[in-house]
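Data availability (excerpt). The following record was deposited with the supplementary files.
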Amino acid sequence: VSVAAVFFGAMTYIGNGPNFMVKSISERAGIKNVLLLLIILISVFIDPAVISWVPSLDPFPLGIREIIMISIIFAAYKFTKPEILKANEFDFEPMKEVTYLFLGIFATMMPALQLIAETAKANGQALTPGIFYWATGILSAFLDNAPTYLNFLSAAMGKSGMDVNIPSQVSQFSGDFPIYLSAVSVAAVFFGAMTYIGNGPNFMVKSISERAGIKMNIFVFSLPGKMIRNYL
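Predicted structure:
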């Protein structure tokens, strides 16, 4: 909410400035894609683990939700007029850049994260919530934060002999050890926003901004001070 408020205030201030010009819109186009976007938002909640009548496609790597999203994305691109895509300066280069980068990250990070998870389980009694916070956070800043979160959650649950693959034990862990869950979750989210490679969308925003002629800094996506504030 605070970010939305700052964005609204900044855009209002810029829009009222003397050098701001508004182009008249003679024709609105692409409104049908709003419906497609709505379908994608709804599909996020189609989870067979939550909704009993939704079929599970195991062991197929994609579920109903993912198939719907991919189909809608394809339809949106296929049936949108080329002139609309050109007017919005749409191309696949930012997505390609992110894809290549994170394929490399995922290929090299998993053995390291698995080693960390096993070490944490073996020395679990000596690991405090603070250690989990900083370890999860630092690695989330320089690796993708989603698998980092999952590995450290698995390690934290392993301290108590629980398995992250069993939903009932995940629920029990969140109730019995909320401070460990909070440490891992908060660190993964906030440190993941610290660098471009901490989260996929960060790097995509950088790439899109640079293609629009906006100069971006070299590596840091957001200020790290809030990570220390969250810990305190």
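Summary of structural features: The CA atoms of residues 2 and 8 lie 10 Å apart.
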